Amino acid sequence: MILSIDIGGTAVKMGLVDRAGTIHARHEASVCYDNYETPILTTVIREAKHFLGRENTPIEGIGVSATGQVDDRAGVVIGTNGKIPHYEGSQIKHELEAEFGVPVFALNDANAAALGECFAGRAKGVDNVLMITLGTGVGGGIVLGGKIFGGTRGIAGELGHITLYADGVPCACGSRGCYESYAATTALVRLAKAATGETEMNGRIIFSRAAQGDAQMLAILERWIGDIAAGVVGLVHTFNPQMVLIGGGVSTQETLLIAPLRERIIRTVMPRFAECLQVEAATLGNDAGMIGAAKFCMDNMR
User: Fold this and answer.
1) What is d(CA 236, CA 257) in angstroms, rounded to the nearest whole number?
2) N or C end of the chain: smaller count of CB under 10 Å?
3) Phi/psi of residue 206, each to 5°?
4) Which domains does the chain have, with CATH numbers?
5) pTM across the whole model
6) 17 membership: H or E segment, kind and range
7) pLDDT one-digit tens code per residue, 211-242
């Protein structure tokens, strides 16, 4: 069994994952219970000890999916934009190997999700995959030849921070016009609030009204989908994937999001890039990171 750990900004999830990608036991705990006074990695180690003690199952390795920029060679968190106290610089690989005495391999959570979908999800058996996760921000993972493309330090795939509009809105990263400022679900909500003047607005309301034929919400969705598609088209021309996967809670909206996004992308890319290109919703949901981290560990233990 592989102990797979998925470290988020508010909680850590972990499970025992077999070599087929099946999760056999689970555990979850808060990592922000004292406003991060206790470092996240300290909480992770404590909870992992509790979980393994409870399950009494031997493990051969540990795979970690972690939020932030993760050097997947060294297993170190090297960037977070300062959003999480006491987290940047966390020596995930070194500290977990010292505690548990098994090999540890860590990667960014979006990369892990992409690898998980290729291992046991919608992209199973597909070698070249681009995954984009739409949520509060935009995450991304690039799988080429069946392997995560990590770049020089394992931090490639920050798709949310490609520039969509050179003079666009300011982004938290310090730049302007970043893709996530237009393609995230928060961008969709911002558009809806600006158009309606309503302060109580969220994605559920937008999609519900659109499903009922609300012309204003349908127009807002069309604009948002246009921005998502514009970024994807550029990435398709760069990486020539077989499949584009859309993740995040909104990916369940086949009729109002996935279908029109698929049509826009296929229509817009150059003809040869459209051949055999699939645009689909991811299927593993919140398990994708854990399954991908386990796969990353298995691949590196060989």
Assistant:
1) 18
2) C
3) -60, -50
4) 2-112+286-301 (3.30.420.40), 124-283 (3.30.420.40)
5) 0.89
6) strand 11-17
7) 999 999 999 999 999 999 999 999 999 999 99
